[in-house]
Amino acid sequence: MSTQTGHAGRLVLAYSGGLDTSVAIRWLSEQKGYDVIACAIDVGQAQPGELERVRQRALDCGAVEAVVVDARDEFADDFVAHAIRSNALYMGKYPLVSALSRPLITNHLISTAREHDAAAIAHGCTGKGNDQVRFEVTAMALAPDLTVEAPIREWGLSREASIAWANERGIPIPVRSSSPYSIDENLWGRTAECGILEDPWVQPPEEVYERTRALADTPDEPDEVVIGFREGLPVTLDGKELDLRSLVAELDQRAGAHGVGRIDMIEDRLVGIKSREIYECPAAITVLTAHRDLEDLCMEQELAQEKRALEGRYAQLIYNGLWFTPLKVALDAFMASSQRFVVGEVRIQLFKGAATVVGRRSDIALYDHDLATYDEADRFDHTQAEGFVRLWGLPTKVWSRRQGDIGG
Asked: Could you tell me whether strands 233-237 and 240-241 are parallel, antiparallel, or unpaired per DSSP bridges?
């Protein structure tokens, strides 16, 4: 690689503290002439004190400045909350762990760029993944004037070559060359890929998992939790009122202890390839299971049917990096309106990898015992059923008489 001369000004890099973005700091300086400002965003992935160490690592790698942003509450209230209200599961399985965080991170990169008079931002994504789209399309929507650099996509170095390049320059990279996995995590879950996981026939080794126990190591007695919802969002856990971030974090530990939330799937990536992905989402799976069940109790039939039809589309928009788009904004309004009467409590049993609803209640439930029961308290007027059935079946009856034998 030849070193570019000249000065390109300031650039804000989404910095994770890992190998790729640590190398990217020096590469962007040497090859592009940027003064790199590293920006690390805490969306629930960091242990206490970790991001301060990440900040120092960025400076040691050559950043002219390093910024740390605590976005945990913002992530919970402005991003995870949308996923809960919409029951967002890509391909009906994936709770959008990484996809949810990318628009937030990009927004902070842009804010930092404005604050430091930078003309460019950068991410550490490859050309094969989804995240490059999420970062860049978000930037197009919010700051079309900014240049977006993708150093890893451009330099094309393998993992081993990146390590060697860093060692040649004395860059302090926090990596073991023997570690085969690529990890991303936040409040809503954890993802793992690469290494042996790329063989879809091979069972993931236990070393891959951190937030969930193996079933053989889970308790032999279930744990029961009661999640209280208000306007579609969880607000209490076992009667204790909590902010969303704290509730998710506590539930993640309790559900993970019972092995809940492991997802092993073949995923259709946006770039057109299939990949094998491993996710750990104990709280996400538990909350979404409870929320969907409470909707069944409280939501009017036609509204519920239409919402279920839109949930997959909504999840796909998020997965495809289209958070800040007109359709997403319009669907947000629909989802929020649909949650007005999703109020009540759900009892969930956590046991041997499953989060199972065992009870639900609401003061405004549309379930009416006296209409549903078959005992003597039954208030349903059975005499009206005959006329209803005749009218409902009339089109079928007419079809059968006129056309039913065609091609028979």
From this structure: antiparallel
Q: Which two tokens stand for residue 75?
A: 């992530």
Count of alpha carbons within 13 Å of 234, Cβ hemisphere only? 34
What tokens does 167 get?
A: 């060692």
| Cβ count within 10 A of residue 269 | 14
128: tokens are 């094969």
Q: Which has the closest alpha carbon to 213: 280, 270, 157?
A: 280
CA dihedral 79, 124, 315, 201 (to 10 degrees): -130
Q: What are phi and psi of 336, to 5 degrees?
A: -65, -45
Residues 6+ apart with CB under 8 A from 284: 83, 95, 97, 188, 189, 248, 261
Catalytic residues: 20, 102, 131, 182
Distance between CA 219 and CA 41 in Å, rounded? 35
Q: How far is CA 16 from CA 43, 54, 183, 302, in A?
A: 11, 7, 11, 45
Q: Within 13 Å, how many C-alpha atoms sit on residue 122's CB side?
A: 31
Q: Classify 323 as helix, strand or coil.
A: coil
What's the Cα-to-Cα distance from 252 to each of 188, 205, 246, 293, 326, rounded to whole Å?
8, 21, 10, 19, 33
Distance CA 360, CA 298 (A): 10
Residue 205 carries which side chain, given as an amino acid letter? P
Read off the pTM. Answer: 0.92
d(CA 336, CA 44): 25
DSSP 8-state assignment for residue 383:
G
Helix count and strand count (H, E) for the chain: 14, 14
| pLDDT tens sequence for the chain (408 residues) | 444 556 789 999 999 988 889 999 999 999 999 999 999 999 999 888 888 899 999 999 999 999 999 999 999 999 999 999 999 999 999 999 999 999 999 999 999 999 999 999 999 998 888 999 999 999 999 999 999 999 999 987 777 788 888 888 888 876 554 567 888 999 999 999 888 999 999 999 999 999 999 999 999 999 999 999 999 999 999 999 999 999 999 999 999 999 999 999 999 999 899 999 999 999 999 999 999 999 999 999 999 999 999 999 999 999 999 999 999 999 999 999 999 999 999 999 999 999 999 999 999 999 888 888 788 778 888 888 999 999 999 999 999 998 887 665
Neighbours of 232 (CB within 10 A): 23
